[in-house]
Design goal:
By secondary structure, this protein is an alpha/beta fold. The strands form 5 sheets. It has a 7-stranded mixed beta sheet, with helices on both faces. Strands 4-3-2-5-6-18 form a 6-stranded mixed beta sheet, sandwiched between helices. α5 packs across α6.
Protein backbone atom coordinates (compact mmCIF):
# COMPACT_ATOMS: atom_id res chain seq x y z
CA UNK A 1 0.00 0.00 0.00
CA UNK A 2 1.80 3.17 1.21
CA UNK A 3 4.99 1.45 2.34
CA UNK A 4 3.87 1.01 5.94
CA UNK A 5 0.99 -1.31 5.22
CA UNK A 6 1.07 -4.55 3.23
CA UNK A 7 -2.25 -5.65 1.75
CA UNK A 8 -3.22 -8.74 -0.20
CA UNK A 9 -6.31 -10.74 -1.12
CA UNK A 10 -7.03 -14.42 -0.74
CA UNK A 11 -9.53 -16.49 -2.71
CA UNK A 12 -10.88 -19.13 -0.35
CA UNK A 13 -13.41 -21.94 -0.84
CA UNK A 14 -17.07 -21.06 -0.36
CA UNK A 15 -17.55 -24.30 1.59
CA UNK A 16 -20.39 -26.76 1.02
CA UNK A 17 -21.85 -26.37 -2.48
CA UNK A 18 -25.23 -27.77 -3.44
CA UNK A 19 -25.48 -28.45 -7.16
CA UNK A 20 -28.64 -29.29 -9.10
CA UNK A 21 -28.29 -30.36 -12.73
CA UNK A 22 -30.75 -31.03 -15.59
CA UNK A 23 -31.41 -34.10 -17.69
CA UNK A 24 -30.48 -32.81 -21.14
CA UNK A 25 -26.68 -33.06 -20.76
CA UNK A 26 -26.19 -35.15 -17.61
CA UNK A 27 -22.45 -35.78 -17.91
CA UNK A 28 -21.47 -32.38 -19.30
CA UNK A 29 -23.54 -30.45 -16.76
CA UNK A 30 -22.02 -32.46 -13.93
CA UNK A 31 -18.53 -31.67 -15.22
CA UNK A 32 -19.36 -27.96 -15.46
CA UNK A 33 -20.48 -28.03 -11.83
CA UNK A 34 -18.02 -30.26 -10.00
CA UNK A 35 -14.77 -29.25 -11.76
CA UNK A 36 -14.60 -25.60 -10.61
CA UNK A 37 -16.01 -26.44 -7.18
CA UNK A 38 -13.39 -29.11 -6.51
CA UNK A 39 -10.56 -27.12 -8.10
CA UNK A 40 -11.17 -24.29 -5.63
CA UNK A 41 -11.28 -26.56 -2.59
CA UNK A 42 -15.00 -26.98 -1.94
CA UNK A 43 -17.07 -30.04 -1.15
CA UNK A 44 -20.19 -30.78 -3.16
CA UNK A 45 -23.61 -32.34 -2.76
CA UNK A 46 -25.03 -32.88 -6.23
CA UNK A 47 -28.61 -33.75 -7.11
CA UNK A 48 -28.99 -35.09 -10.66
CA UNK A 49 -32.26 -34.85 -12.55
CA UNK A 50 -34.65 -37.65 -11.62
CA UNK A 51 -34.72 -38.75 -15.28
CA UNK A 52 -30.93 -39.25 -15.50
CA UNK A 53 -29.40 -40.24 -12.13
CA UNK A 54 -27.14 -43.07 -13.29
CA UNK A 55 -24.55 -40.87 -15.01
CA UNK A 56 -23.90 -38.87 -11.84
CA UNK A 57 -23.74 -41.98 -9.67
CA UNK A 58 -21.20 -43.57 -11.99
CA UNK A 59 -19.01 -40.45 -12.05
CA UNK A 60 -19.19 -40.32 -8.25
CA UNK A 61 -17.95 -43.90 -8.17
CA UNK A 62 -15.04 -42.91 -10.42
CA UNK A 63 -14.07 -40.06 -8.09
CA UNK A 64 -13.94 -42.56 -5.23
CA UNK A 65 -11.73 -44.87 -7.27
CA UNK A 66 -9.51 -41.90 -8.12
CA UNK A 67 -8.84 -41.29 -4.44
CA UNK A 68 -11.09 -38.41 -3.46
CA UNK A 69 -11.62 -38.41 0.33
CA UNK A 70 -14.98 -39.53 1.65
CA UNK A 71 -17.48 -36.71 1.86
CA UNK A 72 -15.94 -34.49 -0.83
CA UNK A 73 -18.13 -35.64 -3.74
CA UNK A 74 -21.66 -36.60 -2.72
CA UNK A 75 -24.47 -37.51 -5.13
CA UNK A 76 -28.04 -37.59 -3.83
CA UNK A 77 -30.65 -38.63 -6.43
CA UNK A 78 -34.23 -37.59 -5.89
CA UNK A 79 -37.13 -35.45 -6.99
CA UNK A 80 -37.90 -31.80 -6.38
CA UNK A 81 -38.12 -32.20 -2.61
CA UNK A 82 -34.50 -33.35 -2.54
CA UNK A 83 -33.35 -30.23 -4.32
CA UNK A 84 -35.53 -28.07 -2.08
CA UNK A 85 -33.91 -29.60 1.01
CA UNK A 86 -30.47 -28.70 -0.35
CA UNK A 87 -31.54 -25.13 -1.02
CA UNK A 88 -33.06 -24.72 2.44
CA UNK A 89 -30.26 -26.31 4.46
CA UNK A 90 -28.31 -23.81 6.56
CA UNK A 91 -25.08 -25.81 6.31
CA UNK A 92 -25.05 -25.40 2.52
CA UNK A 93 -23.14 -22.27 1.52
CA UNK A 94 -23.90 -22.06 -2.20
CA UNK A 95 -26.36 -23.42 -4.75
CA UNK A 96 -25.53 -23.85 -8.43
CA UNK A 97 -28.56 -24.71 -10.54
CA UNK A 98 -29.15 -25.34 -14.22
CA UNK A 99 -32.77 -25.71 -15.27
CA UNK A 100 -35.98 -23.81 -15.83
CA UNK A 101 -36.53 -20.16 -14.98
CA UNK A 102 -39.60 -21.11 -12.95
CA UNK A 103 -37.58 -23.35 -10.63
CA UNK A 104 -34.67 -20.90 -10.61
CA UNK A 105 -36.90 -18.21 -9.14
CA UNK A 106 -37.99 -20.54 -6.34
CA UNK A 107 -34.38 -21.47 -5.60
CA UNK A 108 -33.36 -17.82 -5.34
CA UNK A 109 -36.26 -17.06 -3.00
CA UNK A 110 -35.63 -20.05 -0.73
CA UNK A 111 -31.86 -19.54 -0.67
CA UNK A 112 -32.46 -16.02 0.64
CA UNK A 113 -34.94 -17.16 3.30
CA UNK A 114 -32.42 -19.36 5.07
CA UNK A 115 -28.77 -18.40 5.39
CA UNK A 116 -28.75 -16.04 2.39
CA UNK A 117 -26.61 -18.52 0.47
CA UNK A 118 -25.19 -17.35 -2.83
CA UNK A 119 -26.58 -18.77 -6.07
CA UNK A 120 -25.44 -19.34 -9.61
CA UNK A 121 -28.41 -19.83 -11.93
CA UNK A 122 -28.27 -20.94 -15.57
CA UNK A 123 -31.89 -20.89 -16.69
CA UNK A 124 -34.10 -20.90 -19.77
CA UNK A 125 -33.76 -19.08 -23.04
CA UNK A 126 -35.49 -18.06 -26.24
CA UNK A 127 -32.40 -17.27 -28.23
CA UNK A 128 -32.44 -15.27 -31.48
CA UNK A 129 -30.41 -16.38 -34.48
CA UNK A 130 -30.13 -13.39 -36.84
CA UNK A 131 -29.37 -14.11 -40.50
CA UNK A 132 -28.47 -11.25 -42.84
CA UNK A 133 -29.04 -11.23 -46.58
CA UNK A 134 -25.33 -11.48 -47.52
CA UNK A 135 -24.79 -14.96 -46.07
CA UNK A 136 -23.88 -18.15 -47.85
CA UNK A 137 -27.44 -19.44 -47.77
CA UNK A 138 -26.67 -23.15 -47.55
CA UNK A 139 -24.23 -22.59 -44.69
CA UNK A 140 -26.77 -20.40 -42.91
CA UNK A 141 -29.52 -23.01 -43.24
CA UNK A 142 -27.28 -25.76 -41.86
CA UNK A 143 -26.00 -23.56 -39.03
CA UNK A 144 -29.50 -22.49 -38.03
CA UNK A 145 -30.72 -26.08 -38.23
CA UNK A 146 -27.92 -27.29 -35.96
CA UNK A 147 -28.47 -24.37 -33.60
CA UNK A 148 -32.06 -25.45 -33.01
CA UNK A 149 -32.25 -29.21 -33.61
CA UNK A 150 -29.04 -30.12 -31.73
CA UNK A 151 -29.86 -32.67 -29.00
CA UNK A 152 -33.45 -32.90 -30.29
CA UNK A 153 -33.93 -29.22 -29.51
CA UNK A 154 -33.43 -29.96 -25.82
CA UNK A 155 -30.87 -27.22 -25.24
CA UNK A 156 -31.29 -24.09 -23.11
CA UNK A 157 -29.45 -21.93 -25.64
CA UNK A 158 -31.21 -23.34 -28.74
CA UNK A 159 -31.61 -20.77 -31.52
CA UNK A 160 -35.36 -21.12 -31.54
CA UNK A 161 -36.16 -17.68 -32.98
CA UNK A 162 -34.58 -17.62 -36.43
CA UNK A 163 -34.72 -14.05 -37.76
CA UNK A 164 -34.12 -13.93 -41.53
CA UNK A 165 -33.77 -10.77 -43.60
CA UNK A 166 -36.69 -10.28 -45.98
CA UNK A 167 -34.59 -10.47 -49.18
CA UNK A 168 -33.73 -14.13 -48.61
CA UNK A 169 -36.63 -15.18 -46.40
CA UNK A 170 -38.64 -17.36 -48.80
CA UNK A 171 -35.61 -19.24 -50.10
CA UNK A 172 -34.32 -19.74 -46.55
CA UNK A 173 -37.66 -21.21 -45.46
CA UNK A 174 -37.72 -23.56 -48.44
CA UNK A 175 -34.19 -24.80 -47.83
CA UNK A 176 -34.80 -25.13 -44.07
CA UNK A 177 -37.81 -27.35 -44.74
CA UNK A 178 -35.78 -29.57 -47.06
CA UNK A 179 -33.03 -29.77 -44.44
CA UNK A 180 -35.49 -30.79 -41.73
CA UNK A 181 -37.17 -33.37 -43.97
CA UNK A 182 -33.82 -34.96 -44.80
CA UNK A 183 -32.96 -35.79 -41.19
CA UNK A 184 -33.29 -39.39 -40.06
CA UNK A 185 -35.18 -40.00 -36.81
CA UNK A 186 -34.90 -43.14 -34.71
CA UNK A 187 -32.66 -45.10 -32.35
CA UNK A 188 -29.90 -42.73 -31.15
CA UNK A 189 -27.50 -45.65 -30.71
CA UNK A 190 -27.57 -46.15 -34.49
CA UNK A 191 -24.77 -44.00 -35.93
CA UNK A 192 -26.83 -43.35 -39.07
CA UNK A 193 -29.60 -41.70 -37.06
CA UNK A 194 -29.52 -37.90 -36.73
CA UNK A 195 -32.37 -37.29 -34.26
CA UNK A 196 -33.47 -39.41 -31.34
CA UNK A 197 -36.47 -39.24 -28.99
CA UNK A 198 -37.44 -36.57 -26.50
CA UNK A 199 -36.66 -37.29 -22.85
CA UNK A 200 -40.11 -38.45 -21.72
CA UNK A 201 -43.86 -38.35 -22.35
CA UNK A 202 -44.33 -35.11 -20.43
CA UNK A 203 -41.86 -33.30 -22.65
CA UNK A 204 -43.37 -34.86 -25.77
CA UNK A 205 -46.83 -33.61 -24.79
CA UNK A 206 -45.50 -30.11 -24.11
CA UNK A 207 -43.91 -29.97 -27.56
CA UNK A 208 -47.06 -31.20 -29.28
CA UNK A 209 -49.11 -28.58 -27.40
CA UNK A 210 -46.73 -25.87 -28.59
CA UNK A 211 -47.01 -27.09 -32.19
CA UNK A 212 -50.80 -27.00 -31.87
CA UNK A 213 -50.56 -23.46 -30.52
CA UNK A 214 -48.43 -22.37 -33.47
CA UNK A 215 -50.99 -23.64 -35.96
CA UNK A 216 -53.92 -22.13 -34.08
CA UNK A 217 -52.27 -18.71 -33.80
CA UNK A 218 -51.62 -18.49 -37.54
CA UNK A 219 -48.05 -19.60 -38.14
CA UNK A 220 -47.47 -21.58 -41.34
CA UNK A 221 -46.47 -25.18 -40.67
CA UNK A 222 -43.96 -25.88 -43.44
CA UNK A 223 -42.93 -29.38 -42.44
CA UNK A 224 -43.26 -31.81 -39.54
CA UNK A 225 -45.68 -31.08 -36.75
CA UNK A 226 -46.56 -34.64 -35.82
CA UNK A 227 -45.45 -37.41 -33.53
CA UNK A 228 -43.62 -40.26 -35.24
CA UNK A 229 -45.07 -43.66 -34.34
CA UNK A 230 -46.57 -44.66 -31.02
CA UNK A 231 -43.51 -46.22 -29.37
CA UNK A 232 -40.95 -43.85 -27.92
CA UNK A 233 -41.22 -40.09 -27.82
CA UNK A 234 -40.27 -39.09 -31.35
CA UNK A 235 -41.28 -35.76 -32.92
CA UNK A 236 -40.84 -35.04 -36.61
CA UNK A 237 -38.40 -32.16 -37.26
CA UNK A 238 -40.75 -29.19 -37.47
CA UNK A 239 -40.42 -25.81 -39.21
CA UNK A 240 -42.83 -22.89 -38.83
CA UNK A 241 -42.77 -19.84 -41.13
CA UNK A 242 -44.68 -16.54 -40.97
CA UNK A 243 -44.13 -16.47 -37.22
CA UNK A 244 -45.02 -13.24 -35.39
CA UNK A 245 -43.36 -11.95 -32.24
CA UNK A 246 -46.53 -12.20 -30.14
CA UNK A 247 -47.19 -15.88 -30.91
CA UNK A 248 -46.71 -18.34 -28.07
CA UNK A 249 -44.11 -20.33 -30.01
CA UNK A 250 -42.06 -17.14 -30.42
CA UNK A 251 -42.20 -16.25 -26.73
CA UNK A 252 -42.03 -19.48 -24.74
CA UNK A 253 -39.28 -22.06 -24.56
CA UNK A 254 -40.31 -25.22 -26.42
CA UNK A 255 -37.29 -27.46 -25.72
CA UNK A 256 -37.94 -29.58 -28.78
CA UNK A 257 -37.24 -29.90 -32.52
CA UNK A 258 -39.42 -26.95 -33.57
CA UNK A 259 -37.89 -24.09 -35.57
CA UNK A 260 -39.64 -20.73 -35.84
CA UNK A 261 -38.58 -18.49 -38.73
CA UNK A 262 -39.37 -14.77 -38.48
CA UNK A 263 -38.86 -12.05 -41.11
CA UNK A 264 -37.08 -8.71 -40.57
CA UNK A 265 -35.98 -5.75 -42.70
CA UNK A 266 -33.21 -3.71 -41.02
CA UNK A 267 -30.64 -4.07 -38.26
CA UNK A 268 -32.11 -1.76 -35.62
CA UNK A 269 -35.48 -3.44 -36.02
CA UNK A 270 -34.10 -6.93 -35.51
CA UNK A 271 -32.00 -5.89 -32.50
CA UNK A 272 -35.08 -4.46 -30.81
CA UNK A 273 -37.19 -7.52 -31.60
CA UNK A 274 -34.45 -9.94 -30.58
CA UNK A 275 -34.21 -8.22 -27.20
CA UNK A 276 -37.99 -8.18 -26.72
CA UNK A 277 -37.97 -11.26 -24.49
CA UNK A 278 -37.67 -12.06 -20.81
CA UNK A 279 -34.63 -14.19 -21.60
CA UNK A 280 -31.05 -13.39 -22.51
CA UNK A 281 -28.99 -16.56 -22.57
CA UNK A 282 -27.55 -16.65 -26.08
CA UNK A 283 -27.84 -15.24 -29.59
CA UNK A 284 -26.16 -15.51 -32.97
CA UNK A 285 -25.47 -13.40 -36.04
CA UNK A 286 -24.73 -14.85 -39.47
CA UNK A 287 -23.22 -12.43 -42.00
CA UNK A 288 -20.13 -11.83 -44.13
CA UNK A 289 -19.96 -8.24 -42.86
CA UNK A 290 -18.14 -8.22 -39.51
CA UNK A 291 -18.89 -4.53 -38.98
CA UNK A 292 -22.60 -5.33 -39.05
CA UNK A 293 -21.99 -8.38 -36.87
CA UNK A 294 -20.19 -6.22 -34.31
CA UNK A 295 -22.97 -3.61 -34.39
CA UNK A 296 -25.63 -6.24 -33.73
CA UNK A 297 -23.52 -8.02 -31.10
CA UNK A 298 -23.15 -4.83 -29.08
CA UNK A 299 -26.89 -4.25 -29.20
CA UNK A 300 -27.98 -7.71 -28.07
CA UNK A 301 -28.80 -8.40 -24.42
CA UNK A 302 -27.43 -11.92 -24.19
CA UNK A 303 -24.67 -13.66 -22.26
CA UNK A 304 -23.19 -15.33 -25.34
CA UNK A 305 -23.32 -14.12 -28.94
CA UNK A 306 -22.01 -16.40 -31.68
CA UNK A 307 -20.96 -14.96 -35.04
CA UNK A 308 -21.18 -17.28 -38.07
CA UNK A 309 -21.47 -20.32 -35.82
CA UNK A 310 -23.79 -21.75 -33.17
CA UNK A 311 -23.39 -23.82 -30.00
CA UNK A 312 -19.61 -23.41 -30.09
CA UNK A 313 -18.65 -23.83 -26.44
CA UNK A 314 -15.06 -23.11 -25.34
CA UNK A 315 -14.12 -24.19 -21.83
CA UNK A 316 -12.08 -21.04 -21.16
CA UNK A 317 -14.96 -18.72 -22.13
CA UNK A 318 -17.64 -17.85 -19.52
CA UNK A 319 -21.21 -18.97 -20.13
CA UNK A 320 -24.36 -17.57 -18.54
CA UNK A 321 -27.34 -15.33 -19.09
CA UNK A 322 -28.86 -11.89 -18.84
CA UNK A 323 -32.30 -11.13 -17.43
CA UNK A 324 -34.44 -14.18 -16.59
CA UNK A 325 -31.87 -16.54 -18.07
CA UNK A 326 -30.08 -16.35 -14.73
CA UNK A 327 -27.02 -14.83 -13.12
CA UNK A 328 -23.43 -15.82 -12.53
CA UNK A 329 -21.14 -17.53 -15.01
CA UNK A 330 -19.78 -21.02 -15.55
CA UNK A 331 -16.55 -22.00 -17.31
CA UNK A 332 -13.30 -20.09 -17.50
CA UNK A 333 -11.88 -17.87 -14.78
CA UNK A 334 -15.34 -16.49 -14.01
CA UNK A 335 -16.53 -20.01 -13.28
CA UNK A 336 -13.80 -20.42 -10.67
CA UNK A 337 -14.63 -17.10 -9.03
CA UNK A 338 -18.18 -18.28 -8.43
CA UNK A 339 -16.85 -20.89 -5.99
CA UNK A 340 -14.59 -18.63 -3.93
CA UNK A 341 -14.92 -16.04 -1.21
CA UNK A 342 -12.59 -13.03 -1.41
CA UNK A 343 -10.75 -12.14 1.78
CA UNK A 344 -8.74 -8.93 2.13
CA UNK A 345 -5.76 -9.05 4.51
CA UNK A 346 -4.11 -5.80 5.63
CA UNK A 347 -0.91 -5.91 7.68
CA UNK A 348 0.69 -2.99 9.51
CA UNK A 349 4.45 -3.33 9.02
CA UNK A 350 6.80 -2.70 11.90
CA UNK A 351 9.73 -0.36 11.38
CA UNK A 352 12.93 -2.12 10.43
CA UNK A 353 15.59 -2.43 13.13
CA UNK A 354 18.45 -0.02 12.53
Amino acid sequence: ADGKVFAYTRHEPVGVCGQIIPWNFPMLMMAWKIAPALATGNVIILKPAEQTPLTALYIAQLTKEAGFPDGVVNVVPGYGKTGAALVAHNKVDKIAFTGSTEVGKLINQNAAKGNLKRTTLELGGKSPNIILKDVDLNHAVETAHFGLFFNMGQCCCAGSRTFVQANIYDEFVEKSALCAKSKTVGDPFDLKIEQGPQIDEQQLNKIMDMIKSGKEEGASLVTGGERIGTKGYFVAPTVFADVKDDMTIAKEEIFGPVQQILKFDDLDEVIERANNTDYGLAAAVLTKDLDKANYITQGLRAGTVWVNTYNTIISQVPFGGYKMSGHGRELGEYGLQAYTEVKSVIVQLNEKNS
